[in-house]
Amino acid sequence: MANNNDDQFKKVISHAKEYGYIFASSEIYDGLSAVYDYAQNGVELKKNIREYWWRSMVYLNQNIVGIDAAILMHPTTWKASGHVDAFNDPLIDNKDSKKRYRADVLIEDYAEKLEQKAQKEIDKAKARFGDAFDEQQFVTTHPRVVRYREHQREILARLARSLEAEDLADVKSLIEELEISDPDTGSKNWTEVRQFNLMFGTKLGASADSATSLYLRPETAQGIFVNFLNVQKTGRMKIPFGIAQTGKAFRNEIVARQFIFRMREFEQMEMQFFVRPGEELTWYEHWKEARLKWHLSLGMGEENYRFHDHEKLAHYANAAADIEFKFPFGFKELEGIHSRTDFDLKAHEKFSGKKLQFFDPEMNENYVPYVVETSIGLDRMFLAVLSTALQEEELENGSTRTVLKIPSILAPVKAAVLPLVKKDGLPEIAQAIIDDLQWDFNVAYDEKDAVGRRYRRQDAAGTPFCITVDHQTKDDNTVTIRFRDSMEQRRIAISEISETIGESISFKKWLS
Ligand code: ATP
Predict the structure, then answer these.
(1) Of 321, 484, 478, 265, whose CA–CA distance to 391 is shortest?
(2) Residues of the domain holding 124
(3) Is the CB of 459 inside a 6 Å radius of any atom of ligand 1?
């Protein structure tokens, strides 16, 4: 199973390069670790995901507005937010392999293996008992399943306790007691566990003496907090309201070996929702549900998502959950929903000396609002879409095709227009169709190779529609429209193309 998943992940990575989605950064210099460039198709997919998020957050919520804050912020921001003191990952080195790992991730992976063992027992029993299977009863009484799950809980609870207490020696002990070895080499020869700050530093100003030390923002959220009052006042916003933002964030990740899943430069799509104190947990539940709905609207399979409630809460949170997605390497965090309390605004009040409060006319009272945050990695979402979309299909005639079943609303190129042959005036008609469609859609022209090969090429690139112009077109102004997913072909009038594509990529259809 692990090998299949590895293979699938490798296929995704090489497909992403071959079809112009993702290149390694500065590849001619052998790349830069955990930094990637988005290529001609990748940039479109990324833009479309961002747009899908933005519309659902900002346009479809009358009480949410967007901003675009700078990447560079006043350095005190990061003192106030706690990032200077606490934005650390516990790292551990293997003395034999010289490889560096996140100590918490090694332990979490161990716990996940226990869960997989439990799941295996459940699947086995399910297959054996069929319809008569009572899962609830099975998981509470089957001794092995109960043992695996209890053990898993104990491990995660102890990890949470020791991280909370900053007891790094105990994290090391846990790794030793569980006999966790280097996943690459099997060696158990570990160093101590140390804390490592993830922020990238840089300098502002020309002369060495007067230069100010800055950080590249490790999250976009703080740009929202420091602008809370500006937006509230100028937008005449009333609580509850939200501020959304998409943009780059930077983290000097210790372990960055999973393609665009964990990058050093990445993009976040975050929304901070400001609410009355005491109402935050109701809104937290609301946003958990709303965000899961957004994911499900794309039709990438309900079974590929699950919630994971945090055991260890960050210093600012009173509740937190991840939406995990089934990536080729297993279920991993795709999005976080956090109830951040009034921690950030209070901290900025304290460090700036400025009041960051809201006068609530209904309560006739000033208060620092509480915040519920939704935070999703755009690149992780990209990987979720790409890895789910990439499929090898067996066809009826025994051949296989590689197809990228990207939801049409997100597809980089919506339609390719193909003249059947490169003569008889067909390219000119195809070009005229492009000239019309390109006002509304990103479309491509392709005249090289037999039409069957062109279909396959567009399938693999993820294009949902192919429009073929043939000799009949000259007689009756109709074309063949071919659908990527079903491979169905239909004859339609040239005048109907735009509407057919438009219907399939309507935001209203997808988001409602
Ligand atoms: P992880 O536990 O995987 O390191 P996190 O809990 O630190 O993630 P958050 O700080 O909650 O992540 O950030 C919100 C979102 O930003 C994450 O859900 C993820 O989608 C994205 N994200 C965080 N770090 C990275 C990264 N290094 N590369 C790509 N996306 C990231």
Answers:
(1) 484
(2) 88-197
(3) no
Is residue 343 located within the same domain as residue 224?
A: yes
Q: How far does the centroid of ligand 1 lie from the alpha carbon of residue 177, in Å?
A: 29
- In tens, the pLDDT along 215-229 reads 999 999 999 999 999
Is 90 in a helix, a strand, or coil?
A: strand
Query: Which residues lie closer than 8 Å to 473 by C-beta, 6 or more apart?
Result: 426, 429, 479, 494
Residue 202 placed within a domain: no
| Residue 338 alpha carbon, nearest atom of ligand 1 | 11
pLDDT in tens, 115-134: 999 999 999 999 999 888 99
Residue closest via CA to ligand 1's atom 16 equals 377
Q: Is 14 exposed, middle or buried (0-12, 13-18, 19+ CB in 10 A)?
A: exposed
Residue 79 lies in a domain: no
- For residue 427, being part of any structural domain is answered with yes
**Which residue from 376, 297, 284 is spatially nearest to 338, judged by alpha carbons?**
284
Nearest CA to ligand 1 atom 21: 377
User: Do 193 and 169 meet the contact criterion of CB atoms below 8 Å apart?
Assistant: yes
Which one-letter DSSP state was computed for residue 350? Answer: H
User: What is the distance in A from the centroid of ligand 1 to the CA of 154?
Assistant: 25
Report the distance separating Cα 276 and Cα 370, nearest Å: 6
Atom of ligand 1 minimally distant from the CA of 322: 18
Is pLDDT above 80 for 210?
Answer: no
Q: Using an 8 Å Cβ cutoff, are 404 and 395 in contact?
A: no
Q: What is the pTM of this model?
A: 0.88
User: For residue 45, how far is its CA from the centre of ligand 1 (angstroms)?
Assistant: 20
